[in-house]
TrEMBL record:
PANTHER family: BAX INHIBITOR 1, BAX INHIBITOR-RELATED. Belongs to the BI1 family. It comes from the Eukaryota. This is Bax inhibitor 1. GO terms for cellular component: membrane. Pfam families: Bax1-I. The chain crosses the membrane at residues 47-66, 72-89, 101-123, 129-149, 156-178, 184-203, 223-242. It comes from Rotaria socialis. It is found in: Membrane. It is a multi-pass membrane protein.
């Protein structure tokens, strides 16, 4: 595993002083980003600000769809693909940055629209599942992002090959399950996808830092990468919570 710069999170903690008392928790040490260049730190602020904006746009898309104003989830899938491809084809500069931000916002809005059937299903089963999935997604995303940012050596970049292989294996399982309809394959795909989503958060975060070090300051595209990771994580967590809730309901009905 990678050695992390911030995992002296207790500063001198974990060691007992001569008087037998342990030192206090040091939050500043946990959030010490001094290993990152100032321009990279500023770039990351822009990235996470855009990520917050994309999350709000996706939430708006879910709201609009659930209220019947833009309830076209299948069309939204193709629309999100089109806007994201358009975004990645544009050269990022001072003149195009607002256009790029608009395309990212549109992609996030369409993403919320095509997620609305899953959100609606979860609301019908148990409305609390939505907030639980969102909170779990946020906690996991923040923890893995901090782990990637506080690592001095960009060792998580070596996950790229493993993540690519895992994604190809998931695609193969999905194609197999189109014909077999196996619950076992579905579960393997679901939990493997959850692990890969966490891995992609580590990988993409360090990839963004590395690209920023090399002069790539396209914070809109970088934010979209993290947004895709976050949505993938949220969807899988929500599906797992739905499965568990439905299994509990079946067991209670069989008693």
């Amino acid at each position: 595993m990678a050695q992390t710069a911030g995992f002296s999170i207790f500063g001198n903690t974990g060691r007992h002083q001569a008087d037998g008392k342990s030192s206090k928790f040091n939050l500043k040490t946990l959030l010490d980003f001094s290993t990152l260049q100032p321009r990279v730190q500023n770039h990351l602020k822009n990235v996470y600000t855009c990520l917050l904006g994309a999350t709000l746009c996706a939430t708006l898309g879910v709201f609009l769809s659930l209220n019947g104003w833009l309830n076209y989830p299948r069309l939204a899938v193709f629309a999100s693909m089109a806007t994201s491809i358009w975004l990645f084809s544009i050269d990022f500069n001072a003149r195009t940055q607002m256009k790029c931000f608009g395309l990212m916002s549109a992609t996030a809005l369409f993403t919320g629209i095509y997620l609305s059937p899953l959100i609606n299903l979860a609301i019908n089963v148990d409305p609390q599942l939505i907030m639980t999935a969102f909170l779990l997604t946020t906690v996991i995303f923040v923890c893995f992002s901090l782990s990637a940012l506080l690592t001095k050596n960009r060792t998580y970049l070596y996950l790229g090959g493993l993540l690519g292989t895992g994604t190809s294996f998931m695609l193969l399982l999905s194609l197999m399950n189109l014909f077999g309809r196996s619950q076992l394959i579905f579960n393997i795909n679901l939990y493997l996808g959850l692990a890969l989503a966490c891995g992609y958060i580590l990988y993409d975060t360090q990839l963004i830092v590395e690209r920023a070090n090399n002069g790539d300051m396209n914070y809109v595209k970088h934010a979209l990468l993290l947004f895709i990771d976050m949505v993938d994580l949220f969807v899988r967590i929500l599906i797992i919570l739905l499965k568990n809730s439905q299994n509990k309901e079946k067991k209670s009905n069989n008693r």
